[in-house]
Amino acid sequence: MFLDLLIAIFFIFVGLEITTTLSHPKQIVLPTLAALGGMVVPAAIFITLNPNNPAWATAMPTDLALALGVFALLGKRANPAARIFLLTLAVADDLFSLIVLALFYGDKLDLVHSASTLGAAALGAILAVLPKFPVARVISFLSPICTFFVIPVYVIAKLSQGISIESLTSTTATSLTTARVIGKVIGITFFAWLAIKSKIVKMPNALHLSEIAGVGALAGMGLTVALVISEVAVESEIVQGDIKAGLIISAVISGLIGFIWLRVVQPTNVS
User: Fold this and answer.
1) What is the pLDDT of residue 38?
2) 3-class SS of residue 221
3) pTM of the model
4) In this structure, what is the dihedral angle of CA atoms 155, 160, 165, 168, given to the nearest 10 degrees?
5) In 106-236, which residue ranges form alpha helices assigned H by DSSP?
6) Residue 43: in which H helix or E strand, if any?
7) 120 contacts: CB under 8 Å, gap ≥ 6
8) Which phi-psi region, left, alpha or beta, contains residue 100 (left: φ > 0; alpha: ψ -120 to 50)?
9) pLDDT at residue 131 tops 80
10) What is the DSSP letter of 55?
11) Phi, psi of 121, deg, nearest 5
12) Helix (H, G, I), strand (E, B) or coil at 100
């Protein structure tokens, strides 16, 4: 019950972030399209490598807190435009992940899961559009609580159960790691490049495709929403352990790649 309360707080925060961050159409088109690529490609890779596993959607979500945390380690090398792109992409990713959860796993959601995930996110979204509701103040209040308490407690509680040595080399774990580490970079970068080349949207002046690729690597870090999806999609505790192992491995690898990439690689303009 305590973990359900924590995840409800997290999804209220997600709902608030979705409504406020995605309220500027011109600024969200590129990261939103990139987010779609960062979901479709990893899911396709996972299904190809592990066609009978119902947890394909665990390859999709991006963990906003983890990705922004690693990005912050860049310090003065961090491009503010890349941070905004990452923030918007992760928020769009959360929105699409909730849609996937409702459409493909809705029949497996019980009342508690429905209330603490989809219901809580909907409540956050509604609160964000209410007149005189102090959205910015509430987000500022919930952000550190979610980042430093809710997410760590929830993730540690979930990851402390069911992972074995065999999980680390299981087909599910390796498929999920491949899908997230490789698929996120390819999907996000390619969809962004395609949107720019097809003139659907212009590349922001302060942002470069090489930085989008680095953001794509950081997007391979996904724990909180992916764990929620895993719990709903998969009944087997063994497979859930394999998924947890894959999420941990992919988060570590993606975080390292994204950090090194954004710290070392010089931006190149898109022609």
Assistant:
1) 97
2) coil
3) 0.90
4) -10
5) 111-114, 120-129, 135-145, 151-159, 165-168, 171-197, 209-218, 224-233
6) helix 25-49
7) 7, 8, 9, 10, 11, 12, 15
8) alpha
9) yes
10) T
11) -65, -40
12) helix
C-alpha span between 251 and 134 (Å, rounded):
34
DSSP 253: H
Place of tokens 């997007």: 219
SS3 77: helix
- Interatomic CA distance for residues 90 and 64, integer angstroms: 6
Residue with tokens 């950081």: 218
Burial 87-105 (b: 16+ CB within 10 A, else e): bbbbbbbbbbbbebbeeeb
- Record the tokens describing residue 43, joined without a space: 């899911």
58 C-beta neighbours (distance < 10 Å), count? 31
Q: pLDDT at residue 269 above 70? A: no
Q: Which residue in 176, 199, 198 sits closest to 53, CA to CA?
A: 176
Contact by Cβ (8 Å): 212, 85: yes
Of the candidates 98, 97, 61, 67, the residue with the CA atom closest to the CA atom of residue 84:
67
The reported pLDDT for the residue numbered 165 is: 87
CA distance 174 to 176: 5
Which residue in 38, 160, 27, 42 sits closest to 94, CA to CA? 38
On the 0-12 / 13-18 / 19+ scale of CB atoms within 10 A, 258 is buried
User: What is d(CA 146, CA 13) in angstroms, rounded to the nearest whole number?
Assistant: 8
Q: Which two tokens stand for residue 155?
A: 């993730």
CB 129 within 8 A of CB 19: yes
Please choose, from the candidates 221, 171, 231, the residue with its C-alpha nearest in 3D space to the C-alpha of residue 51. 171
**pLDDT higher than 50, residue 137:** yes
